[in-house]
């Protein structure tokens, strides 16, 4: 007899919990035992809901370039095998490439990645046959109780006997590359000079292959043997400076990059200035001629002000909420439904047709579609990327976060600011922010606390769902003011530790 473990209890014991996108925690806390148990619970849940029939079949496994990823992948693969299924190792690849492989083959997938968070942390992201697990699926997984084989793990939660390393295949990565080469014309980026900031992104090679095959002149940049936590919402100062230096040296039309698992994009203009993800998302959606857009409440309000889209759905932060809103849009009759997040991740819920070619839906965060479409939009309009941005309503966003700020403490602080008593809350917030931003006009508690002031400036406070971080998003009529507001907020929030 083995040990029966309740996943809800294991999440509390290990500290590895579901956030806005999968289960995440310290890499040392994602022991072989935790990885095995969570993956077994995922499979058990799929069997319980009828997606898997206990008759075998494949489940794909992939990961990013963190030092802890291979070990966690190996433990997940052992759980898949012990549950009676075949683990298909897809190796190191972008998260959307693995999801795409699962959608094409109608199989679940397990992606080991911590995305943009530091290397001492990691995570596991699960998808079903039709795409990402949603919040009700997370609840179903958490309520599972799994039996762990006796004698498999030592007192530290690691395998007594080290598992053989996984042998990766390239099919999933190849299919992801083909997804874009089959849809976009082979010479569509001719004449474009593109820098690819590779760092430690899981899709660093695929980015070069795709853009080169589409006709661009590509220069790889910043390759790293060590993991670099590139966060597309809070871009590191050294990455801001590097992009400007590279642009001045090479005279690129754009520089592109992604976060660690290749699902959140970065794209710069011709001056090496990184675009905000929520601005880039508007441009991508416009090129694709979307009639419905789903986007989190934290994203730039230019999406409403531009008038490009018939329907706009505002959601909580996190791709599961965006996906649910995209599903709603399709049920309400929208024909070309997309979604994007402030981190730049772009999702498609409808087939995109271009002549006789069809780009199948990929309802998970993706980076390459945004890179390609913004470049194509600049070609179509015969203007630079900075000019594309200047054509949009001039609303500017800026965000940052305080690291090592426990979620419980940041949530408690928000509860002190907002009680639901409007007059009292306006007085409380006015005492803290009023001197800098003026009187409060309204609140939005869709996700965290979003405060709109009477001058139309915005302060949005939110505990991160993926790490012990307290995030602040600001929006104003000028970029300098948005940056200034964010620094003011960071200084105020730092005193709340």
UniProtKB/TrEMBL annotation:
Its cofactor is Mg(2+). Belongs to the phosphohexose mutase family. One of its GO terms (biological process) is peptidoglycan biosynthetic process. It comes from Candidatus Desulfatibia vada. The keyword Metal-binding applies. This is Phosphomannomutase. CDD domains: ManB. It holds the Pfam family PGM_PMM_II. PANTHER family: PHOSPHOGLUCOMUTASE (ALPHA-D-GLUCOSE-1,6-BISPHOSPHATE-DEPENDENT), PHOSPHOHEXOSE MUTASE. It comes from the Bacteria. Transmembrane segments: none annotated.
